[in-house]
Amino acid sequence: MRLIAFQNQGQSAIGLRLGQEVVDLTAEGLPATLDALLRAGPEGLAAAQRAGASARTRLPLADIAWLPPLQSPAKAIAVGLNYVDHAAEGNFEPPKYPVLFHRFPSSWVGHGQPLVRPHVSTQFDYEGELVVVIGKGGRYIDKAKALDHVAGYSLFNDGSIRDYQFKSAQWMMGKNFDRSGAFGPELVTADELPPGATGLKLQTRLNGQVLQEADTRDMIFDVATLVSVCSEPFALQPGDIIIAGTPAGVGFARKPPIFMKAGDVCEVEIEGVGLLSNPVVDGD
């Protein structure tokens, strides 16, 4: 299934995308957010599938206002340096343990919504990434069973304010400016993709120019490893997300550097998962 969050007449709703149409699952009696649907466990996803099969009313996809798939995850864990070539271009050693930091929901927007370059910096960088969405909670999750805890996948543009990111050894400031990242467009359930979403082509394009191109099999720490490691310090909960890292080609490492600016359009695409597209504006 391909599940989306959207606004319908000013109200939040969730839907099942069928081609260029959307079944309004909220109108069929399901929750208004995917966060709540995932908290219902496997029955929530099963109810979505049943409602999608029986609903007669559908909305044109072109008419909806997209929201980020998850509105308020208990945890949004981002992974740094998870591709060898990206670590090398930043002059870092490939990590032996995942580099993890937190990304706040206030720092991302949905598909089609503007990314905001803050007035305090011109170093607004792009990072195309896979998102892992937790469907079944747990702590100390065995790697061999970790994929059983994954509800599905999505896309993320981990927009980064580079000069703020490197002001200290902690990356939180540069990674959490309001509306600097993007999440979406939809949650693709795990059964639609290869196990662990491995072997999928990833591209990031700025104004149509391909700047990042990789394969998800090239991640240093695969999805199962990330789920297992992230479950050690705290229990993962349904609706938590893991933003799984970006490959080489980011703007600050290029010579000369390439940064996003007002009027640009940045696209992140992963084979089978979808296309996340956002214009860039100046903010504040």
UniProtKB/TrEMBL annotation:
Cofactor: Mg(2+)
InterPro entries named in the record: FAH, Fumarylacetoacetase-like_C, Fumarylacetoacetase_C_sf
Domain (Fumarylacetoacetase-like C-terminal) ranges: 76-281
A single GO molecular function term of this UniProt record: hydrolase activity
Keywords: Hydrolase, Metal-binding
Similarity field: Belongs to the FAH family.
Protein name: Fumarylacetoacetate hydrolase family protein
Lineage, broadest ranks: Bacteria, Pseudomonadati, Pseudomonadota, Betaproteobacteria, Burkholderiales
